[in-house]
Amino acid sequence: MNLVIQSPEPLAFAHHKPLAALARGSRVTAVDAHAIRIEDADPAQRRDLDAYCGTHRLDYGFVEAGRTLADFGLVVMDMDSTLITIECIDEIADFCGVKPQVAAITEASMRGEIRDFNESLARRVALLKGLDAQTLERVYEERLQLSPGATQMLAGAKAAGLNTLLVSGGFTFFTDRLKARLGLDYAHANTLEIVDGKLTGRVSGEIVDADVKARTLVETCARLGIEPSRAIALGDGSNDLKMMARAGLSVAFRAKPVVREAASVSFDFVGLDGLLRLFGNGPAQPA
After folding, report:
1. Residues of the chain whose pLDDT is less than 50?
2. How far apart are CA 118 and CA 216, in angstroms?
3. I need a labelling partner for 66 at 20 to 30 A (CA). Which of 12, 89, 120, 121 fits?
4. Which CATH class is domain 70-278?
């Protein structure tokens, strides 16, 4: 296995030797100014790497030697707190004065403390009843921001020939706009019910929960004629776990502990473009 170490800041040379020793690896090569690759690393050393990397605000990931981004065919992303920095439903709730109540349910749900996602979503959406639907546009224009490295990650995935899927327990109002803005191939989310320009406090149709996220990944792979093992899934909450389990590579992004523990790789400090560095962004140079 190769071990890729990444830093949000330029990675100091002083880290190279200690990390190579901890990983029991051989050659160290530079991926770019922010990352190194250690060849022949030992995955059994995760505990020591966790301690060192956590102390120095570094992210690490084991990748099968010789694997490239082009070996995959699909990158699947959660939206809220993954592709974007906010939880849209919490920001919508802010406009009707119930953000603390909604945010508390969101946090508990993403941590896996509320096991029924459908129930948690229904409870949150019900608190939005009567809100002017134009508020959704304000959230999109005034508060929605892409996560660091999102644009670079998507450009790199597209250059490598990967399709893109945004699948969210959030709302189509936002996923549809992001799909058009970012040139994504597919998007699937919940539809907020709106009557006479007001939110009714309900969603229309099937709720996109953990099972639907996983099914959407599998169905999209089938549409593309690839196995789910050729999908990369990125998420942060417990409702992403089933989707991530079906993928060949799973990335926990600024994620809850239960998700970090289950994922192939965790990015706690670097941006989404860290995905590209896992596979190298060009010929490696001797460090």
Report:
1. 282-287
2. 17
3. 12
4. alpha beta
pLDDT of residue 116: 80
What confidence tens digit (pLDDT) does each residue in 216-272 have? 999 999 999 999 999 999 999 999 999 999 999 999 999 999 999 999 999 999 999
Residue with tokens 């099937």: 206
- Both tokens of 42, joined, read 């030992």
Task: Give ∠ CA 197-134-198 in degrees, rounded to 5.
Answer: 25
Residue 58 three-state SS: coil
Q: Report d(CA 158, CA 163) in Å as an integer.
A: 7
120: enclosing H helix or E strand: helix 117-126
What residues contact residue 287 under an 8 Å CB cut-off, 6+ apart?
13, 16, 28, 29, 30, 36
User: Please, what is the Cα angle at 231 between 227 and 234, to 5 degrees?
Assistant: 155
Q: Alpha helix (H) ranges present in 134-256?
A: 134-142, 150-159, 172-182, 210-224, 241-246
- Residue given tokens 């490598």 in the structure block: 160
Q: Give the pLDDT confidence score for residue 286 in this predicted structure.
A: 42
Tokens of 170: 């959030």
pLDDT of residue 281: 53
Residues annotated as part of the active site: 78, 80
Q: Are 190 and 156 in contact (CB under 8 A)?
A: no
Q: What is the pLDDT of residues 4-16, one digit of tens each?
A: 999 999 999 999 9
- CA dihedral defined by 236, 48, 276, 183, rounded to 10 degrees? 0
Rounded Cα gap, residues 213 and 82, in angstroms:
14
* Residue 284 pLDDT: 41
Q: Quick check: 204 and 193 in contact, CB under 8 A?
A: yes
Query: Which amino acid is present at 208?
Result: V
